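Blinded run. Sample ID left blank on purpose so nobody reads anything into the name before looking at the predicted structure. Input follows.
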Amino acid sequence: MYTEICKAIECGDVATLKLLIQAAEVEGASDTATTEGESLWSAVDSEGRSILQLAVEARNAEVLKCVTEGLSGNCLVALCAKKTNADCSPFPESTPLHTAIALGDLKILGLLLDKISNARGQDGEVPSSSIAAWHTVNANDRTPLAAALASGNIEVVRLVLRAMKTLERNIWRSDGTPIPLISGIVGIDDIRVRGDNALNIAVSTGNPAIVKALVDVLTPEELVRLLTRCNLVGDTALDQAAREGNAEIVRILLKKLGALYKTWIHTPFQVVVESCAESKDEETREKVPDHFSMRLLGNAISSGNAQVVKELLGPLPAEDRYMWLSRTSWGYSLAPLHLAFSLGAHECVGVMLDSLVFGPDGSVDYVSRMLAQRSDGLTPLHCAIEARSVEAIQRYDVPREVLFKLLTSGASDCSPDGSVFVPDGMNPLQAMLAGPGGDGSPVPGAVGVMRAMLDLLEGDPALVQCALSSMDGAGRSTLYTLASLVGSRGVSASDFVSMIDYLESRVNLRTLLEQKNMAEGVSVLDVTRGMEYDLYSWSFSLNDCVSRALNKQEGISKCRASRLMATGGAVVLASFFFFCVSGFAAVCSALYAVCSAGIKERRDGLIIFGIACFVFAFFTVILFLTFSHIAPGIQDAANRYAVIAGDPGVGIPEPAFNVGVSLDANREVRFRPENIEKTEARRFHLRRERDPLRVFSSSPSASSTPSALSVDLTSGLHTFQSRRLSRSCSYPGSVSEKPSVVPTPEDLPGTSVQASATETLPGEQDKGLGE
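Blinded prediction complete.
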């Protein structure tokens, strides 16, 4: 009988199928079946397919209707939970529900779901096995609901959800409480694949309509429980949406969460990890430190989607935003703002800072505190790799003193295996030259980023001078490090020239160029002159540029300073003179009006007096503006040019160490925190492949021969204790212990200086250093 029914289903012979089913019902009523469990309805073929499975695969609505009408409610529901064999093609380990969903035939699926929803047992109640049909998973570990969501067909999803909602209204616990069927099934993980639950799968489709259809049948509390469960990758559904940059899906989830979002966002990530399918065992469960937050903000920044970042921060007050931005997302080594700077996501930087200022209860103070926040020993500016991220800070009225402190803050105890490594003691300007790896490979466009940082100081020559003269732990200024890297990886002579041109009208160049490296007693001018002595092809133009800038600055700046001082004095005297003249004229006109005998003369006198009073009031305002705005502005400009020109009457700030490097009682430079030796040993082990000294293998600078960073200084200087040579912590910039001298013919491999040039330049051109 089973074989004949199978043939009728395959042929689509509805009439024959009806007769066979009627005969089977008579046979079942006469109890002629062999044994219980081997009846016609429980029979399967060699691939494990039941009659209901075959009817669904036939994709014939009349055949399916005929089969389902011939089955009792209990039998129909039981067959819906029966899976095919693992070798069944093309639907392995699939129930009829899985098969109907995979086929995507809405008519077949709708008919099957309608029969299941209306199925009743002999007692008139919903069969107890109905829930099992919806919990059964296929070969991909997906329930029928998860399979429907993964199909990406919104109509299929709606049909499945409608049927499940109908069943949910008709099933109850023994105590009379409803059974949350949908939320329970949505939370089932596909353990054999990625540990995704149904909400993860819905988000992975990228279809906002599918996510909304699923979220609409859940309560906010049920959604919170689902969003606190992560897959084997560590992503919740919201993390996944943020990673994929789907702002519309993020908006749907946050709208459903409502007020619960503000409390849910502060859930420790340890709670999420504990929900992971592979972390059920207490002994093997990964322990997450409390300072790690949810991954969604880090995921959004790594995707570069500023709109998602805006959606995530939008519902939160300013204090909650600041707290969230201060915490590191699990799986990332840097806090969100640091991460955005390190990835060059300038739009995300702008959105995060805007949220601290223009949101509810926002304030510029939050921006100042956030820019000073350290993550892995670094400030956000240490992590910058492009100018636009730095320029975004200019939109806010952050005090220049705060920005100056940030530009002179040295890195401290940076993790050697982090995404960004900056040698201890280096400020953000020097970090651009050290590069993200800390190995002396500058970030692309490092000079442009440095100029953007200096622009934050709004052209204040004293602050810019201090920032550039500030030294790292080895006593190197920013310009010294830049000059030492010229001709090396990532720094060309034109980069150095462009920096000199930029600084020409902003600082006193001679003071900066003559500032000596405290460990070697070598200045930037010594380095540049050493390049010329070595006869590198581009070094002559570089030295010409430096000399021209120095001569131009000393001449023009002094001239401008004197002119501005004279102009300021002339403006003050002129305004005071006209003020006195107008006052005297007002007094005279008043006396004339009083002493006039005739009516006409008195009237004319009053008119003259009114005009004189108006002129007097005008010049009074001019005098006030002169003393309150014009004269101080001219004086500030004059003082700035005086600083640039190196006027002895204007004090130029003395060089100092970056914040984080201090001189202790023993007059030794030490890094904070303590136990630096242990840290250095760990860095040497983890970063032994990064050899910063290799930078100098082709460097034409005077620092081509590196020396130990721990040296004895000349008498009168402080004794330095710096890093010892190691691949992990040494940074280029120390110069040869022998001072640069003009080579003599006897010292050269040829017979003359020209012979040396002939031997040197082709080799350097081969290295790409000739310009």
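Unblinding after everyone has recorded impressions. Strands lie at 292-293, 328-329, 661-663, 669-671.
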